[in-house]
Amino acid sequence: MKTWDAIIVGGGLIGMSLALSLRRHGAQVLVVERGEPGREASYAAAGMIADLDPHTPEVLRPLAVASARLYPEFVHELQDESGADVDLRDQGTIFFPDPNVHLAAVAISLSDGAQLKKLEPCLNYAGLSVLLYERSVDPRALMAAALKAAKHRGIEVASGSAVTGLITESGSAAGVRTAKTEYRAPVVVNCAGAWAGQVGPQAPARPVKGQMLALIAPRRDLLRHVVRAPEVYLVPRSDGRILVGSTLEDAGFDKRVDAGVIQRLHQAAANLVPDLGQARMLEAWAGLRPGTPDELPLLGRGPYDGYFIAGGHYRNGILLAPVTALLMTEVIRGLPPELDLSAFAPSRFKKDL
C-alpha cells in the first residue's frame, strides 16, 4: 500500500495552503477531499482580507495582522507557479461602523462627507465612515491558482472521498479511511471545514450558512473600495462584478438559496449604491462557514500523536490561510510556532475518545 508523509483532510484554501507549505519542506502530501477541491467555503467567500475589522476578537488579531502582511508574497508565489491572476486589490475598505464600535488607531476618519464622495461618488451614506487600508482577493481565482500550484509541486489529490474516520495505531495517527479505501500516513491534519467533526475528535465545527449574490455593475469603475456597512457589504472585482453579502444562519448543511433573502441583500446594496438597484444579478449562492462554540479557530495538536487540526476559521478563512499554513507547518515539524496558538488549542474542547 502506498503511503505519504502527511494527509490533509479537506481541499479548501486552508488545506491546500498547508499542503503547499509542507511540500515546500520536502513532505510527500496527499489531500483527501469529500467533494470537488475548493468548492465549499472557499468558493463561497467574498475575499475580504479584513485584518483591521474591529469585530475581530482581540486574541485573534495578531494572527489576522500577520496573515495580511504575508498576503502579497503568498499571492505572488501562487500566481508565479500557476500563471493565473487572483485579483488582489489594495484600494482599501470604506467602513460604516456602529456608533459603539471601537475603531483601530489606523482607521482614517472620513468625517467630511465631501471626502467620502471624493473616494466613492456612487455611495449614498450620511453617517460616520472611515477608511481602512485592507486588501481583497478573488477566492475562486486564488483557489484555482493554489490547485495548479499543488499539481505543479506533485501534491496528490483524492477527490470525491469523504473521510469517515482516523486510523490510529498504538495511540498515534496512521492514516484515514473512507467508505471505499484507506490512506496511510504518520501525520494527518483535519482541515475539513464545517465537516471537521466527522473526521476526528476535538473538532467541534458546525456549519454557519451565508447567502450572497454577485451583480454586474453598470460600469466597471462604479465602485473601487470594499464597502462594509452594518447591514451589508460590497466587494468589487476588477472585471466589474460586485459581490453582495451576507447572512449568518444556523441551518445545518442546507445550502439552498432563498429568493427573498437575496432580494433583501440586493435592496440593501441599492440603498448604499443607488446605481445597483437595476444592476443585473449574475449569480446567487450559499456557503457553509466552519464555526466553533467560541468562534475561534482550532489550531494545533489533537489527542493522538501525529493528528493535528487546522479549522474552525469561521468568517476569516481566506484572511488566515497564509498564517495558518506557516504556523501549522511549524507545529507539525515539531518547532515552536512564531505566534502563540494556546488560545486556539483544540484541547480546549476536550471530548471523550
Helical stretch tally: 7
Total count of strands: 19
**What fraction of the residues are assigned to beta strands by DSSP?**
25-35%
Which stretches of 5+ consecutive residues score pLDDT under 50? none
Largest sheet: 8 strands, mixed
CATH class of the largest domain: Alpha Beta
* CA radius of gyration: 20 Å
In CATH, what is the homologous superfamily of the largest domain?
FAD/NAD(P)-binding domain
Strand arrangement within the widest β-sheet reads 5-6-4-14-15-16-13-17
Distance between the termini: 28 Å
Shape: globular
SSE order in H/E notation?
A: EHEHEHEEHEEHEEEEEEEEEHEEEH
Mean pLDDT: 95
CATH topology of the largest domain: FAD/NAD(P)-binding domain
Q: Percentage of helical residues?
A: 25-40%
Query: How many domains would you count in the coordinates?
Result: 2
Structural class: alpha/beta
CATH architecture of the largest domain: 3-Layer(bba) Sandwich
Q: What do these coordinates show?
A:
It is a single chain. The chain has 353 residues and is α/β, with parallel strands linked by helices. It folds into two domains: 6-83 and 139-205 and 293-349, FAD/NAD(P)-binding domain (3-Layer(bba) Sandwich); 93-132 and 207-291, D-Amino Acid Oxidase, Chain A, domain 2. Helices cover 25% and strands 25% of the residues. An eight-stranded mixed sheet has the order 5-6-4-14-15-16-13-17. A hairpin with a 5-residue loop joins β18 and β19 (307-311). α1 packs parallel to α5 (139-152), α1 packs parallel to α7 and α3 (61-82) crosses α7 (317-332).
